[in-house]
UniProtKB/TrEMBL annotation:
Keywords of the record: Membrane, Transmembrane, Transmembrane helix
Organism: Persicitalea jodogahamensis
InterPro entries tied to this protein: CodB (IPR030191)
Gene3D superfamilies with a match to the protein in the record: Hydantoin permease (1.10.4160.10)
Transmembrane segments: 61-85, 106-129, 149-170, 182-205, 225-243, 264-287, 307-328, 349-370, 376-398, 410-432, 438-458
GO MF terms held by the record: cytosine transmembrane transporter activity
Protein name: Membrane protein
Cited PANTHER family: CYTOSINE PERMEASE, CYTOSINE TRANSPORTER CODB
Keyword Transmembrane helix appears in the UniProt entry: yes
GO annotations of cellular component type: plasma membrane
């Protein structure tokens, strides 16, 4: 007989359309584990090497990443967590009160799908480890489609497990991260130490010389300077901090100071782990196969599983698998909340399983992981400006003379001021990037500020007296 399917709770109460009560508030330790696990995770095995393919210098990498990650922590602490502990609502319900049901539905759909694509990239990362015992062909930097039946089976199996965990709610996601993250950090460190030994690094000068003053980017990649590194590392999670998606997480926090726990993710994951993964790739590109590919004008593949296995063996493979899970779990959880806001009659568990299915399908296509730097920049640029609507409405509605949470109070389903502010900001700044050749992350903050300011201006003219 076939094994019984895992039981998913029919209803996980996540306070989707009401403030989180004080009885459900959580201390800072709950967030520490989640952020350390989510950001010292699967993406790091891909992003670290991609910095090397972009030709960064030692100064750009070390100092640029430190500053960019500091700005991200400050954004979470003083913007996201501050608003979250004031309103204690999900992003989606808070946005509905401002935008109206019809308009926020379109946003929720876009938000949920983009989160699913990001989670799909993490499933791809885990698959590169699970596939090694099956002699699976690894995806190349230029691959977009599945490369074989083994790849498809492995991705589907991983996606099913991740979806089940995410569907069990915030507590399960948080507990999983708390258990996994300390061990993963040790494996990242071990990979870095092994890579340093293999690269013959005996001093800080030797380490510095691995990157030196930078080099030409690999075929198909763009050159990253200091400001590319700073702004990309600040805004790679723009949707979550200045885009306010993590209202859904920090609404559980007892105090806004829990926002400081994001530093565990930024400096253990987005700093230490990126650099360790970058060193692994630096070691790999010294191999004969990689040098032959470079000589032929091709970029060597970025396959986290084989790189970690080469460094620390089975422990490296397990780390890559678990690392993919700890990022995909909360990402699918967020996507499930977005879809649940569209279909509130469905339980959160059911819509999270739907989100997991979409993420699993996305994971079949390696392009989301192999082009992760570009995808994350676009994802943050699209979603971040909507966060400005919430921030400006929360802090500046009174001084601007407009009604806060206008859609709810006016009983409307569509707030035109929001659409105009978002659409105009997106159109102007994306056009500058597309036609002017400006790096998209350079324009995320201007687009965010523009959207917030335009929202206040349009609201002033379009709001009716209540």
């Amino acid at each position: 007989m076939p094994p019984e399917a895992p039981v998913i709770p029919a209803e996980v109460h996540e306070y989707e359309r009401e403030p989180v009560p004080s009885s459900a508030w959580k201390g800072w330790k709950s967030f520490l584990g989640m952020y350390a696990g989510e950001h010292a995770a699967g993406t790091e095995f891909v992003i670290g090497p991609l910095f090397l393919t972009a030709g960064v210098s030692a100064f750009d990498l070390l100092v640029g990443l430190f500053l960019g990650n500091l700005l991200a922590v400050l954004s979470w602490r003083y913007i996201t967590a501050a608003v979250a502990t004031d309103v204690r609502l999900t992003l989606y319900y808070q946005l509905e009160k401002i935008c109206g049901r019809r308009l926020v539905t379109a946003y929720n759909l876009a938000n949920g799908i983009l989160f699913c694509f990001l989670a799909g990239a993490m499933i791809t990362v885990s698959a590169t480890a699970v596939g090694i015992p099956f002699d699976m062909e690894m995806p190349k930097l230029t691959d977009t489609m599945p490369n074989g039946i083994t790849w498809i089976v492995v991705v589907l199996a991983i996606g099913a497990v991740i979806s089940i965990i995410a569907a069990r709610g915030y507590d399960t996601v948080s507990k999983f991260a708390n258990i996994a993250s300390p061990w993963m950090v040790l494996i990242f460190l071990a990979c870095g130490v092994v890579a340093l030994k293999g690269l013959g690094v005996a001093s800080f000068a030797d380490f510095w010389n691995i990157f030196g003053e930078g080099r030409e980017p690999f075929p198909g990649q763009i050159k990253y300077t200091f400001w590319h590194v700073v702004l990309w590392s600040w805004f790679c999670n723009a949707a979550m901090h200045i885009g306010m998606s993590d209202l859904s997480v920090f609404r559980y926090a007892k105090k806004a100071s829990s926002g400081w726990t994001t530093a565990a993710g930024m400096y253990v994951g987005h700093y230490l782990a990126w650099i360790c993964a970058c060193l692994l790739y630096a070691l790999y590109i010294r191999t004969g196969d990689a040098q032959a590919m470079l000589a032929a004008g091709q970029a060597p593949p970025v396959a986290p599983g084989p790189m970690a296995y080469q460094a620390v063996g089975i422990a490296g493979l397990i780390c890559v698998v678990v690392a993919g899970w700890t990022t995909a779990n909360p990402t699918i959880y967020r996507a499930g909340l977005a879809f649940q806001a569209i279909a509130p009659k469905l339980s959160t568990a059911r819509v999270t399983m739907i989100a997991g299915a979409v993420a699993t399908v996305a994971g079949l296509f390696p392009a989301f992981a192999m082009q992760l730097l570009d995808f994350v920049a676009v994802y943050g640029f699209i979603l971040a400006p909507v966060g400005a609507i919430i921030v400006f409405d929360h802090y500046f509605a009174g001084s601007a003379g407009i009604v806060q949470n206008y859609a709810e109070k006016a009983g409307i389903n569509f707030n035109l001021a929001v659409l105009l502010a978002w659409g105009i900001s997106m159109a102007i700044f994306y056009s500058i990037s597309a036609f002017g050749g400006v790096f998209l992350s350079f324009l995320t903050l201007p687009a965010w500020l523009s959207c917030g300011a335009l929202y206040l201006v349009f609201s002033k003219f379009l709001q009716k007296k209540i």
